[in-house]
Specification:
CATH superfamily of chain A: STAS domain
CATH architecture of chain B: 2-Layer Sandwich
Strand content of chain A: 25-35%
Number of domains of chain B: 1
Largest sheet of chain A: 6 strands, mixed
Strand order of the largest sheet of chain B: 1-2-3-5-4
Shape of chain B: globular
Structural class of chain A: alpha/beta
Number of strands of chain A: 6
Order of helices and strands of chain A: EEHEEHEHHEH
Distance between the termini of chain B: 16 Å
Strand content of chain B: 25-35%
CATH topology of chain B: Heat Shock Protein 90
CATH topology of chain A: Transcription Regulator spoIIAA
CATH superfamily of chain B: Histidine kinase-like ATPase, C-terminal domain
Number of helices of chain A: 5
Oligomer: heterodimer
CATH architecture of chain A: 2-Layer Sandwich
Structural class of chain B: alpha+beta
Shape of chain A: globular
CATH class of chain B: Alpha Beta
Protein backbone atom coordinates (compact mmCIF):
# COMPACT_ATOMS: atom_id res chain seq x y z
CA UNK A 1 0.00 0.00 0.00
CA UNK A 2 1.25 3.43 -0.97
CA UNK A 3 0.73 6.36 1.44
CA UNK A 4 1.24 10.02 0.57
CA UNK A 5 0.95 13.20 2.63
CA UNK A 6 -0.30 16.67 1.85
CA UNK A 7 -0.21 19.65 4.18
CA UNK A 8 -2.74 22.47 4.02
CA UNK A 9 -2.12 25.14 6.66
CA UNK A 10 -2.17 23.17 9.94
CA UNK A 11 -4.06 20.22 8.50
CA UNK A 12 -2.25 17.07 7.41
CA UNK A 13 -3.90 14.92 4.78
CA UNK A 14 -2.90 11.25 4.72
CA UNK A 15 -3.79 9.51 1.46
CA UNK A 16 -3.55 5.71 1.46
CA UNK A 17 -3.80 3.95 -1.90
CA UNK A 18 -4.67 0.28 -2.33
CA UNK A 19 -5.42 -2.39 0.24
CA UNK A 20 -5.28 -1.98 4.00
CA UNK A 21 -5.06 -5.63 5.03
CA UNK A 22 -3.12 -7.49 7.70
CA UNK A 23 0.11 -7.17 5.73
CA UNK A 24 -0.23 -3.41 5.25
CA UNK A 25 -1.51 -2.50 8.72
CA UNK A 26 1.80 -2.04 10.59
CA UNK A 27 3.31 0.12 7.87
CA UNK A 28 0.19 2.28 7.66
CA UNK A 29 0.17 2.68 11.45
CA UNK A 30 3.71 4.07 11.29
CA UNK A 31 2.82 6.52 8.54
CA UNK A 32 -0.15 7.84 10.54
CA UNK A 33 2.10 8.23 13.58
CA UNK A 34 4.47 10.28 11.42
CA UNK A 35 1.51 12.39 10.32
CA UNK A 36 0.40 12.97 13.91
CA UNK A 37 3.92 13.93 14.98
CA UNK A 38 4.18 16.38 12.10
CA UNK A 39 7.28 17.97 10.63
CA UNK A 40 8.51 20.33 13.32
CA UNK A 41 5.17 20.85 15.05
CA UNK A 42 2.09 18.67 15.35
CA UNK A 43 -0.82 19.41 13.01
CA UNK A 44 -4.14 20.79 14.30
CA UNK A 45 -6.01 18.17 12.29
CA UNK A 46 -5.26 14.92 10.50
CA UNK A 47 -7.60 13.80 7.74
CA UNK A 48 -7.30 10.41 6.09
CA UNK A 49 -8.53 10.76 2.51
CA UNK A 50 -9.80 7.25 1.66
CA UNK A 51 -10.83 7.90 -1.95
CA UNK A 52 -8.12 5.51 -3.21
CA UNK A 53 -8.50 2.98 -0.37
CA UNK A 54 -9.94 -0.14 -2.02
CA UNK A 55 -10.11 -2.52 0.90
CA UNK A 56 -10.04 -2.57 4.68
CA UNK A 57 -10.16 -5.54 7.07
CA UNK A 58 -10.29 -5.69 10.87
CA UNK A 59 -6.50 -5.23 10.88
CA UNK A 60 -7.04 -1.88 9.15
CA UNK A 61 -9.89 -0.90 11.47
CA UNK A 62 -7.53 -1.51 14.36
CA UNK A 63 -5.10 1.05 12.92
CA UNK A 64 -7.87 3.64 12.58
CA UNK A 65 -8.98 3.05 16.16
CA UNK A 66 -5.48 3.33 17.66
CA UNK A 67 -4.81 6.41 15.52
CA UNK A 68 -8.06 8.12 16.53
CA UNK A 69 -7.21 7.52 20.18
CA UNK A 70 -3.65 8.80 19.77
CA UNK A 71 -4.96 11.92 18.04
CA UNK A 72 -7.50 12.48 20.79
CA UNK A 73 -4.78 12.25 23.45
CA UNK A 74 -2.64 14.73 21.49
CA UNK A 75 -5.54 17.15 20.99
CA UNK A 76 -5.46 16.70 17.21
CA UNK A 77 -8.74 16.57 15.28
CA UNK A 78 -8.96 13.23 13.45
CA UNK A 79 -11.31 12.37 10.63
CA UNK A 80 -11.72 10.22 7.53
CA UNK A 81 -13.28 11.24 4.26
CA UNK A 82 -14.35 9.91 0.86
CA UNK A 83 -14.86 6.25 1.79
CA UNK A 84 -15.59 3.90 -1.12
CA UNK A 85 -18.94 2.05 -0.71
CA UNK A 86 -17.43 -1.33 0.28
CA UNK A 87 -15.11 0.32 2.83
CA UNK A 88 -18.02 2.40 4.12
CA UNK A 89 -20.01 -0.79 4.67
CA UNK A 90 -17.23 -2.21 6.87
CA UNK A 91 -17.18 1.02 8.88
CA UNK A 92 -20.95 1.00 9.32
CA UNK A 93 -21.26 -2.69 10.20
CA UNK A 94 -18.43 -2.51 12.74
CA UNK A 95 -19.87 0.58 14.42
CA UNK A 96 -16.71 2.55 13.59
CA UNK A 97 -18.75 5.21 11.77
CA UNK A 98 -20.11 6.14 15.19
CA UNK A 99 -16.76 6.55 16.95
CA UNK A 100 -14.65 8.01 14.13
CA UNK A 101 -15.75 11.11 12.25
CA UNK A 102 -16.31 10.38 8.56
CA UNK A 103 -16.98 13.13 6.01
CA UNK A 104 -18.42 12.61 2.54
CA UNK A 105 -15.49 14.22 0.74
CA UNK A 106 -12.26 16.11 1.25
CA UNK A 107 -13.82 19.58 0.87
CA UNK A 108 -16.34 18.86 3.63
CA UNK A 109 -13.64 17.43 5.88
CA UNK A 110 -11.44 20.49 5.39
CA UNK A 111 -14.37 22.84 5.98
CA UNK A 112 -15.01 21.16 9.34
CA UNK A 113 -11.44 20.76 10.54
CA UNK A 114 -9.57 23.48 8.68
CA UNK A 115 -8.14 26.90 9.65
CA UNK A 116 -11.54 28.35 10.62
CA UNK A 117 -11.66 25.84 13.46
CA UNK A 118 -9.59 26.22 16.60
CA UNK B 1 -15.19 -23.17 -13.90
CA UNK B 2 -17.62 -23.68 -11.01
CA UNK B 3 -15.24 -24.70 -8.29
CA UNK B 4 -11.66 -23.85 -7.36
CA UNK B 5 -9.55 -25.16 -4.54
CA UNK B 6 -6.17 -24.29 -3.09
CA UNK B 7 -4.10 -25.24 -0.07
CA UNK B 8 -1.50 -23.17 1.84
CA UNK B 9 0.30 -23.33 5.19
CA UNK B 10 -1.22 -21.18 7.95
CA UNK B 11 1.40 -18.46 7.64
CA UNK B 12 0.52 -14.76 7.41
CA UNK B 13 2.86 -14.46 4.40
CA UNK B 14 0.38 -16.63 2.45
CA UNK B 15 -2.43 -14.07 2.70
CA UNK B 16 -1.62 -12.40 -0.66
CA UNK B 17 -1.61 -15.85 -2.31
CA UNK B 18 -5.13 -16.53 -1.05
CA UNK B 19 -6.35 -13.07 -2.02
CA UNK B 20 -5.05 -13.59 -5.54
CA UNK B 21 -6.68 -17.02 -5.69
CA UNK B 22 -10.02 -15.43 -4.79
CA UNK B 23 -9.60 -12.58 -7.29
CA UNK B 24 -8.79 -15.02 -10.09
CA UNK B 25 -11.89 -17.07 -9.28
CA UNK B 26 -13.92 -13.86 -9.22
CA UNK B 27 -12.83 -12.61 -12.61
CA UNK B 28 -12.95 -16.06 -14.24
CA UNK B 29 -16.58 -16.33 -13.11
CA UNK B 30 -17.30 -12.76 -14.32
CA UNK B 31 -18.66 -11.82 -10.91
CA UNK B 32 -19.21 -8.12 -10.10
CA UNK B 33 -15.91 -6.73 -8.77
CA UNK B 34 -17.69 -4.48 -6.27
CA UNK B 35 -18.88 -7.55 -4.38
CA UNK B 36 -15.50 -9.24 -4.13
CA UNK B 37 -14.44 -7.29 -1.06
CA UNK B 38 -16.84 -9.04 1.32
CA UNK B 39 -15.34 -12.41 0.35
CA UNK B 40 -11.77 -11.09 0.44
CA UNK B 41 -12.44 -9.80 3.92
CA UNK B 42 -14.04 -13.07 5.10
CA UNK B 43 -11.08 -15.01 3.70
CA UNK B 44 -8.55 -12.75 5.42
CA UNK B 45 -10.32 -12.76 8.78
CA UNK B 46 -10.85 -16.52 8.92
CA UNK B 47 -7.36 -17.31 7.62
CA UNK B 48 -5.70 -14.92 10.08
CA UNK B 49 -7.71 -16.52 12.86
CA UNK B 50 -6.23 -19.90 11.97
CA UNK B 51 -2.76 -18.33 11.77
CA UNK B 52 -3.19 -16.83 15.26
CA UNK B 53 -5.05 -19.62 17.03
CA UNK B 54 -4.58 -22.82 15.08
CA UNK B 55 -0.91 -23.56 15.65
CA UNK B 56 0.41 -25.84 18.31
CA UNK B 57 4.16 -25.77 19.10
CA UNK B 58 6.27 -27.04 16.22
CA UNK B 59 3.43 -27.46 13.73
CA UNK B 60 1.89 -25.19 11.14
CA UNK B 61 -1.65 -26.16 10.10
CA UNK B 62 -2.60 -26.54 6.46
CA UNK B 63 -5.47 -24.40 5.26
CA UNK B 64 -7.63 -25.48 2.33
CA UNK B 65 -9.86 -22.93 0.65
CA UNK B 66 -12.52 -23.81 -1.87
CA UNK B 67 -14.79 -21.51 -3.78
CA UNK B 68 -17.96 -22.70 -5.41
CA UNK B 69 -20.26 -20.89 -7.75
CA UNK B 70 -23.69 -21.94 -6.54
CA UNK B 71 -27.14 -20.83 -7.60
CA UNK B 72 -27.28 -17.10 -7.16
CA UNK B 73 -24.17 -16.80 -5.08
CA UNK B 74 -20.76 -17.94 -3.95
CA UNK B 75 -19.96 -20.53 -1.30
CA UNK B 76 -16.54 -20.43 0.35
CA UNK B 77 -15.21 -23.20 2.55
CA UNK B 78 -12.10 -22.76 4.70
CA UNK B 79 -10.75 -25.91 6.35
CA UNK B 80 -7.72 -26.37 8.56
CA UNK B 81 -6.09 -29.22 10.45
CA UNK B 82 -5.14 -27.07 13.44
CA UNK B 83 -6.46 -27.23 17.00
CA UNK B 84 -10.23 -27.57 17.29
CA UNK B 85 -11.62 -24.06 17.31
CA UNK B 86 -15.06 -22.74 16.50
CA UNK B 87 -14.68 -19.00 15.84
CA UNK B 88 -18.46 -18.59 15.92
CA UNK B 89 -18.36 -19.08 19.70
CA UNK B 90 -16.30 -15.90 20.14
CA UNK B 91 -18.24 -13.18 21.98
CA UNK B 92 -19.50 -10.35 19.79
CA UNK B 93 -17.74 -7.02 20.26
CA UNK B 94 -19.76 -4.18 21.77
CA UNK B 95 -20.22 -1.97 18.72
CA UNK B 96 -22.00 0.65 20.82
CA UNK B 97 -18.94 1.20 23.01
CA UNK B 98 -17.34 4.63 23.08
CA UNK B 99 -13.96 5.19 21.50
CA UNK B 100 -12.03 4.76 24.76
CA UNK B 101 -13.89 1.61 25.73
CA UNK B 102 -13.83 0.01 22.33
CA UNK B 103 -11.68 -3.12 22.36
CA UNK B 104 -8.90 -3.19 19.82
CA UNK B 105 -9.60 -6.35 17.91
CA UNK B 106 -12.24 -9.04 18.24
CA UNK B 107 -13.89 -7.67 15.14
CA UNK B 108 -12.87 -10.05 12.39
CA UNK B 109 -15.32 -12.88 12.93
CA UNK B 110 -18.05 -10.38 13.74
CA UNK B 111 -17.55 -8.74 10.34
CA UNK B 112 -17.67 -12.12 8.60
CA UNK B 113 -21.00 -12.94 10.24
CA UNK B 114 -22.44 -9.57 9.32
CA UNK B 115 -21.19 -9.40 5.74
CA UNK B 116 -22.00 -12.99 4.73
CA UNK B 117 -25.56 -14.32 4.38
CA UNK B 118 -24.75 -17.57 6.17
CA UNK B 119 -21.77 -18.88 8.17
CA UNK B 120 -21.50 -22.32 9.74
CA UNK B 121 -18.82 -24.29 11.56
CA UNK B 122 -18.22 -28.03 11.51
CA UNK B 123 -15.55 -30.18 13.06
CA UNK B 124 -14.79 -32.93 10.51
CA UNK B 125 -12.52 -35.50 12.15
CA UNK B 126 -9.30 -33.61 12.78
CA UNK B 127 -10.32 -30.59 10.69
CA UNK B 128 -12.15 -27.36 11.35
CA UNK B 129 -14.42 -26.27 8.54
CA UNK B 130 -16.03 -22.88 8.20
CA UNK B 131 -18.51 -22.52 5.36
CA UNK B 132 -19.91 -19.18 4.32
CA UNK B 133 -22.08 -18.04 1.48
CA UNK B 134 -23.55 -14.91 0.06
CA UNK B 135 -25.99 -14.05 -2.67
CA UNK B 136 -24.42 -12.13 -5.54
CA UNK B 137 -26.45 -9.39 -7.14
CA UNK B 138 -26.51 -8.59 -10.86
CA UNK B 139 -23.73 -10.80 -12.15
CA UNK B 140 -21.89 -9.16 -15.01
CA UNK B 141 -21.41 -12.42 -16.82
CA UNK B 142 -25.10 -13.26 -16.94
CA UNK B 143 -24.10 -16.87 -16.40
CA UNK B 144 -26.80 -19.55 -16.34
CA UNK B 145 -25.41 -20.79 -13.02
CA UNK B 146 -26.38 -17.54 -11.41
CA UNK B 147 -30.11 -17.50 -12.03
CA UNK B 148 -31.80 -15.74 -9.11
CA UNK B 149 -34.69 -17.32 -7.29
CA UNK B 150 -33.41 -20.87 -7.34
CA UNK B 151 -32.15 -22.23 -4.09
CA UNK B 152 -29.29 -24.57 -3.54
CA UNK B 153 -25.81 -24.57 -2.11
Amino acid sequence: MNVTFETLARTTLVIPQGRLDFGAADGFQKRIEEGLAGAGSAPAALIVDCSALDYVSSAGLRVFLTSARAAQRAGIAFALCALQPAVREVFDVSGFSRIITVYADRATALAHTGPTRE
Amino acid sequence: MNERRTCVPADAAQLPVLTQFLQEFWSAASLPPAQAMNFELALEEVFMNVVSHGSSPGTVPRVEVSLLLADGGVMMSIEDDGAAFNPLTLPEPDIQAKIDERRVGGLGVFLVRKLMDAVSYQRNGSRNQLRMSKHIEEPLGGSAHMSPGSSGM
